[in-house]
Design brief:
The complex is a heterodimer of chains A (299) and B (397). With 299 residues, chain A is of the alpha/beta class. Chain A is built from ten helices and 14 strands. The chains are: A alpha/beta (299), B mainly alpha (397). Chains A and B meet through α3 of A and α1 and α10 of B.
């Protein structure tokens, strides 16, 4: 395999008693790239992330950074935002961010400066002296993001970062993630909000039942889908037409929708439809990420 | 990193209202005792027992002598019963109008039993009067008689210096025992709560991204331990300042000899119990489950405290006390008081301290090993069997 700059996870396996949580997870997060890490609940996303962080010892597989096995020192350059928020309720916002910065190796002055900078960036500049427990869930999540970023990590691991955020916070987090990628950091995040993932991430890795099912760009995954979505807008009444091997889907009035095999000839289908009624507009496209995801995880 | 963790513990805990209130109350109590004792009026007069003596036969001057002799302990009033019949005297005694009647003879008449304090005073005065009368009959003048009757001043000295300051020694030993018993409980539980808080809030996942479990454990034990020392110093400092300022106590040199051993023992106790509380805290994920795992810690604590209490004034050299002085979990309570009582050989002190240091070191090693596997464990608590396997180097399923 070619050497990868950034994170490379190969063949991770982990068993918890009778449960085989990971059965062969592969994940790549090159430097300067944002990767969506997708999978249903219990697929092994969090366990994989914890394996990368060294929080859980793996039974098999490897985790490398810039082509070499990840060391304890490398892990100091990881920023982590856990799925369940991890903050001290009785610490103040500024104090908390600065403390985590010092634990990551920053000196006092730098940690203080960065804490102020990140509190401002995530919109909490005026809440620096408030206790964490006095903040709303959304604002606590902003603090969590600042904690993950205060030491300017080379690898950012975000476990369900958008869960429970309002649209403004989602926009802020999306901007911050894009900024981190722009400065060359590797960013991997998990999310169940597939529309968001499709907008943000060029690359995704989809896992299910502890195994990587697919990895690649969103465009490629969609293109490699074995099905296509056919949508026909009729002028006038909707005729009783359906394509061969097509599965009808629910559609609004005046519109027909079908899922057809990817190797279907669009021109033939359109001609066949036009022979039964007045066709207004046609779209013949690969499925969206959500359909690709459902198809992959249900195999 | 250990320093960072320790400072966070100190800062966070020190600014909680509960810590400030408890420290404030303890300091106030320590200072208030000596200050109030010095400021409040002496109530000695009010404490004297009131006694009424009925004088059936009046002896010249006996009233003044009895009153003067009994001044320290009895507040005596005399009632003139000259010429009273035996029935009248009996009635006065029965009615409680008088406590005793003094008749010629000389005879003391009681209602029922003898009050030995009153009898002793009257008897002493009568003896002195008799001796004076006999001395005069022998031709001695007043000065000769006084010289003759002056008792020999019996002085005392102590072959063991500690004997001179035994009261203060017992007091300081008891304070040391209380501190060695209470501080590990209070601050050990704080350590445990801190571990559980990090697990329940999941902040542990972020911390372990940057810290080794051993670093986190050491920082926590040292931080909370330092806070305990600060509280101890503030409270004892307040007490010492109040005692010295009010001139309530003269701390003998012998006491200063064993104060360092008290401090070392308290520090050792805090280290070993804080580590133990942290270790057991890592087995659970919720504060509500703390009582399930704490019980075993209280067994050595209670044993050390109760045996220590008996050893302060009782036998400090029994086999049990000697054995528990060498056991690291009870040594912090028993070692200082045996040193204070001068009931321990130097080699035993060295061995006890050595075992204590080894105990702290060993427990930190075991706790760090267990910590690695239990810190991220959530849900049901880790069982005792699993704990034993982890401490032997196994891993959790």
């Amino acid at each position: 395999m070619p050497m990868t700059n950034g994170l490379r996870v190969t063949g991770l396996r982990k068993r918890f008693g009778e449960i085989e949580a990971l059965r062969g997870i592969d994940l790549e997060v090159p430097r300067g790239q944002l990767v969506g890490f997708l999978g249903p609940n219990g697929a092994g996303k969090t366990t994989t992330m914890r394996g990368v962080l060294g929080l859980v010892a793996m039974d098999a597989g490897s985790v490398t950074w810039d082509g070499s096995p990840m060391t304890e020192d490398d892990r100091h350059h990881i920023g982590y935002m856990p799925q369940e928020r991890g903050l001290y309720p009785r610490m103040m916002v500024h104090e908390h961010i600065a403390y985590m910065g010092r634990l990551a190796g920053l000196d006092h002055a730098t940690a203080d400066g960065r804490a102020r900078q990140w509190a401002e960036r995530v919109g909490l500049a005026d809440r620096g002296n408030d206790l964490i427990q006095e903040l709303s869930t959304g604002n606590q999540q902003r603090v969590q993001l600042a904690v993950a970023l205060v030491h300017e990590p080379e690898l950012l691991i975000l476990d369900e970062p958008f869960a429970g955020l309002d649209p403004v916070a989602v926009a802020t987090l999306s901007e911050v993630m894009a900024e981190q990628v722009a400065r060359g950091a590797s960013v991997v995040f998990s999310s169940h909000q597939l529309d968001l993932v499709q907008d943000l991430a060029e690359h995704v890795t989809i896992v299910a039942a502890g195994v990587t099912r697919a990895t690649g760009t969103v465009t490629n995954l969609r293109a490699h889908s074995p099905v296509r979505h056919l949508e026909i807008h009729w002028n006038g009444s909707v005729p009783n037409w359906s394509p061969p091997d097509g599965e009808p889907r629910k559609a609004p009035a005046g519109v027909s929708r079908f899922v057809v095999p990817a190797d279907s000839d669009a021109a033939v289908l359109i001609a066949s439809a036009a022979a039964t009624g007045a066709v207004g507009a046609v779209s013949f496209e690969p499925p969206g990420l959500d359909d690709v995801f459902l198809e992959l995880v249900s195999r | 990193m250990v320093k960072e963790v320790a400072w966070r513990e100190i800062r966070t805990r020190a600014r909680t209202k509960s810590f400030r209130w408890i420290t404030g109350i303890l300091v106030a109590a320590a200072v208030a005792g000596p200050v109030l004792a010095a400021v409040l009026p002496d109530n000695t007069d009010d404490d004297r027992r009131e006694v009424t003596i009925g004088l059936v036969a009046i002896d010249q001057g006996i009233e003044n002598q009895i009153a003067a002799f009994a001044e320290a302990g009895l507040d005596i009033t005399f009632r003139d019963l000259t010429g009273a019949s035996a029935e009248q005297v009996g009635q006065a005694l029965a009615d409680g109008e008088i406590d005793v009647a003094f008749e010629s003879g000389p005879t003391l008449v009681w209602n029922r039993g003898t009050d030995f304090e009153i009898a002793g005073v009257v008897n002493t005065v009568l003896q002195q009067q008799a001796l004076l009368a006999r001395g005069r009959a022998l031709g001695l003048d007043q000065d000769d008689i006084v010289e003759l009757l002056t008792p020999v001043a019996l002085e005392e000295r102590f072959a063991n210096e500690a004997g001179e300051s035994e009261g203060v020694t017992i007091f300081v030993s008891f304070l040391g025992l209380m501190a060695a018993f209470m501080l590990p409980q209070i601050f050990g539980q704080l350590t445990m709560m801190s571990v559980v808080e990090e697990k329940s809030t999941r902040v542990i996942e972020v911390l372990l991204n940057h810290l080794r479990p051993r670093t986190l454990l050491l920082g926590k034990v040292l931080g909370v331990g330092a806070l305990a020392v600060v509280q101890l110093v503030v409270v004892v400092g307040g007490l010492a300042a109040a005692l010295l300022a009010t001139d309530s106590i003269d701390i003998p040199a012998a006491v200063w000899r064993f104060v360092p051993i008290i401090l070392v023992s308290i520090l050792g106790g805090l280290a070993i119990y804080n580590t133990l509380f942290a270790l057991l805290g890592s087995l659970i994920s919720r504060q509500e489950d703390a009582s399930q795992v704490m019980m075993p810690i209280f067994i050595p604590l209670m044993a050390g405290f109760f045996i220590g209490q008996t050893a302060i004034t009782g036998n400090a050299e029994s086999l049990l006390v000697k054995a528990l002085t060498l056991f690291p979990l009870t040594a912090p309570m028993l070692l200082p008081l045996r040193v204070a009582r001068d009931a321990i050989a130097p080699w035993e002190v060295a061995l006890s301290l050595g075992f204590l240091v080894l105990g702290v070191w060993g427990l930190i090693r075991i706790a760090a090993r267990v910590y690695e596997f239990t810190l991220l464990h959530t849900g049901s608590r880790v069982g005792w069997g699993q704990l034993v396997r982890l401490s032997r180097g196994a891993t959790l399923d």
